[in-house]
Amino acid sequence: MMRWAQLLSPARLGSRKRHTEQSRSPFHKDYDRIIFSQSFRQLNRKTQVHPLTQNDAIHTRLTHSLEVSCVGRSLGMLAAEKLKDDLPPWVNPADVGAIIQAACLAHDIGNPPFGHAGEYAMRDWFDRPAQAHIQALVTAQQWSDLVQFEGNAQGLRILSRLEYHPDDGGMRLTYATLGAYLKYPWLPKPMAEQANKSSDRLAKFGCYSSEKQILAEIGEHLGLIQTSEFAFCRHPLTYLLEAADDVCYALIDMEDGLSLGMLHYADVEPIFLQLIGDYGSPHEVNSDVPMRQKLAALRGRAMKRLVEVLTDVFVAHQTELLSGTLRGSLLDHCPRDVCEGIEAAKNMARRHIFTHPHKARLELVATANLTVLMDHFMPLALLDQAALQQASFRERRLLHLLQHYGARLDGTPYENMMQVLDAISALSDHQAHSLAQDLQGHRVALL
């Protein structure tokens, strides 16, 4: 069994200082460190669902992360209030809420430009026959990292290594927040072990081999149950993070679909009412107020019920959570109307949003842009020091750009390729699109 006293550790990765501040808890400081980071700011123009949209009402990764963090905080505080007799005396509900709020804020921080389309493009680049020679330059585990680029693992790399204190703790967040962040606390499976290798069906993971010792340190410090080498069961609070993300995804996708004309209000309202259940429909539904106001009222009522139900489930399954034996997500254990309502929302998005021709065209543009960036920058990671000294004018200009984005290219081929992935994945959608146009000579970057 895992223990709450250990799981809620306020100690920081890479820090030798003791917390002395009285006005903020260590977990509130985590939230502040994330929100002031460059990586978090970059989420402002990164795809949530719709790439390169010009509609300012549509969610980006930043607005989605902020909303998930609000729902996560509510889940954490209410769950802790219901469990307060089981928690250590030095932790209060606001602390637990802050842990999940910070973890939720960071949950998409490693996503590349263009969202999942960007992930697929970066994976597919390595899987092309033209890149087959790269596999001989790295270990099998390192190859799995490269050919399965994963935003969750990239996020851990940012939080623990790249931001603020490079290779010395990164943001130096508390172990509790890092543990709650890790939705998949294990390394990727080797490609040979995955029966279906299509990009959209690869097994999820949360840590590259380059950060495996950090993963081990987090797991050991928190007392996470180890399932195999460099693999642990989830931190219990991760289930609340996952629930907050799923709820926001399901409800907000419908709202964005309405804003873009992909859905109609008459299709969406019944799903919200099903999720609200006995809480009763808000009076705005039957009035003449604008659709946006009706949606806000429905969303608020649905969120209130979902937070109550999800925290009840969390408390009811505390023993399974602490023993690492819970199957599925918290939503899988909710009342039937909630499970079916969330699934109906997701199915509506799959049918009418994810397959919409406009979205498909933009995702093709996104894939083309990232392929251009990978074609230009990744070969530089394979040059040895002698070749770098004799680089052509074009290569020197590309190296200068990479250095501007933080890549040094002074390590092994694997380390250099990871640095190139760091640089490309950090770009916003518009930065990636603009840079790809420049590299193809389609426009001139004017000062």
> At the third CATH level, what is the topology name of the domain at 4-15 and 27-236?
Hypothetical protein af1432
Poorly predicted regions:
none
Tell me, what is the CATH class of the domain at 4-15 and 27-236?
Mainly Alpha
Q: What's the count of strands?
A: 2
Shape: globular
Largest sheet: number of strands, sense, barrel closure: 2 strands, antiparallel
* Beta-strand residue fraction: under 5%
Major sheet: order of its strands?
A: 1-2
What is the N-to-C succession of helices and strands? HHHHHHHHHHEEHHHHHHHHHH
CATH architecture of the domain at 4-15 and 27-236: Orthogonal Bundle
Would you write up a description of this structure?
The protein is mainly α and 447 residues long. It has a domain at 4-15 and 27-236: Hypothetical protein af1432, CATH 1.10.3210. Helices cover 56% and strands 1% of the residues. The chain is built from 20 helices and 2 strands. The protein has helices at residues 4-7, 26-35, 38-41, 61-82, 93-106, 115-127, 140-147, 151-162, 175-181, 212-222, 236-259, 265-276, 291-316, 318-323, 336-352, 357-377, 385-389, 393-404, 413-425, 429-439; strands spanning 226-228, 231-232. Strands 1-2 form a two-stranded antiparallel sheet. A hairpin with a 2-residue loop joins strand 1 and strand 2 (231-232). The termini are far apart. The model has no long low-confidence stretch (mean pLDDT 90).
